[in-house]
Structure prediction request, 504 residues.
Amino acid sequence: MYPDDLKYSTEHEWVRMDGNIAEIGVTVFAQDSLGDVVFIDLPDVGTEIGQFDKFGEIESVKAVSDLFSPVGGKIVATNPGAIENPETVNTDPYGSGWLIKIEVSDPAQLDALMDSETYESTLE
Amino acid sequence: MNHNALKKTVLHETHVGAGAKMVPFGGWDMPVQYADGIIAEVRAVRSSAGIFDVSHMGRLEFDGPAAGLFLGTVLSANMPAIRVGRSKYNFICNEDGGIIDDVMVYHTGDDRFLLVVNAGNTDVDLEWINPRVSAAKKISDAGLSDANQADFTMTVITDETAMVAIQGPDAVEIVDGLTDGEASNIRRFRIGKAIVAGIAATIARTGYTGEDGFEIIVATADGVRLWLTLADAGAVECGLGARDVLRLEAGLPLHGNDLSTDTNPFEAGFGRFAYFGSPGYVAADALRRISQAEPRRKLIGFKMTGRGIPRSGLKVLSGGDRPNVIGVVTSGTHSPTVDGGIGMGYVEQKYAETGSQIVIDVRGRLVEAEIVDMPFYKRG
Prediction:
């Protein structure tokens, strides 16, 4: 449910690092709490955001939730597949349901995030 | 909110046991969705059949020769026109014509009526109705009117009964199978008695989804067995999330969103359900006056043409180069059936024309929409 190779935020987003590029999405807990995801609003590529800043909105049938970036930097990619088919966030939250990629400004930001075990313990 | 303070229907344990997500609604702890989610539930109701626990809705029984006469003083329904076995959608309005609640009244038998009201409004409705019941009795006791005007009783039967709605194209066939074919003899908007899988029930061919189906009332003790029997017969368990999408797709208003004491039946587009000719009807003067005036605003339906989902409370702007605020969204969702964002809202009368382009202010993002005739979905 919460892969070991990812880092997690208290706002239920995950980060997968590849060099200085952070791939970001929402956790199984988040997508389950939301229910059927039907709409995702993401910023333009090139936008600079700070760590823990709001970067977009995710909507289920019932409600709107803000998305907060677990790391800061420049957005280098958004996921057209998730925008086009928001249900992939439900079906594959750690894979094809990723949301944005960020060029991380300061790798030390990752120290403020949780490993999978710690994150899972916050859900109990 | 402390969930322990919430009321629970007899089906509460069944919902929790089946993995439903529970939420507070109208003072009750209710399932918002089951494991497969709102979209799957909406599709089930549109393509086969779904069941809903509606035991939280208030059920008031009026019994006695003067019951219909009394109900005429508090409801916007022409009571003598509702023959035994029939029902009518109508409103409880205050002296200003504001909508306290929207309700269904059923003529269940000779001198016998059932009033089904919104769960969250049950207490407010009773606060409105109770003093009028007392007043009817007092006037009668004082010999100021014909004694028979007080000849009725009102009983709240919410706790002693359970109520389950089964809705969808397969609903009638399913209930027919459990009633030896009795159910389909009850035509649309009618109510009658039947034995459903051995359970004595009152069944009404009404609902809140835009589909054919029934609302079934049984003794509380039989609620779980009724629910499980209907599920075994193929109906999909549904929560309030799907119910809200289905009613919006069907163009049906929700009190608290689309209707309130700040709105009246005429601007909501339901003037045909606002009869004000009953003797002693508390809202008669107001509704007559409102019915004769040009409405200031109107409840409209709209579809999003741009990317975005409308939500209750968002501002509605006029289209064109210089958009100005013309109204407010009162209900909105993503519709799986229409496959897009749909909503209802009040806009100034002059902007309310079908086909008009409008703009919804989605938290700062201006998204285009078009006013359309409701319902958004009509069964084939």
Chain A has one domain: 7-105. Chain A touches chain B at residues 35-36, 38-39, 41, 57, 59-62, 64, 90 (CB under 8 Å). Chain A is about 20% helix and 35% strand.
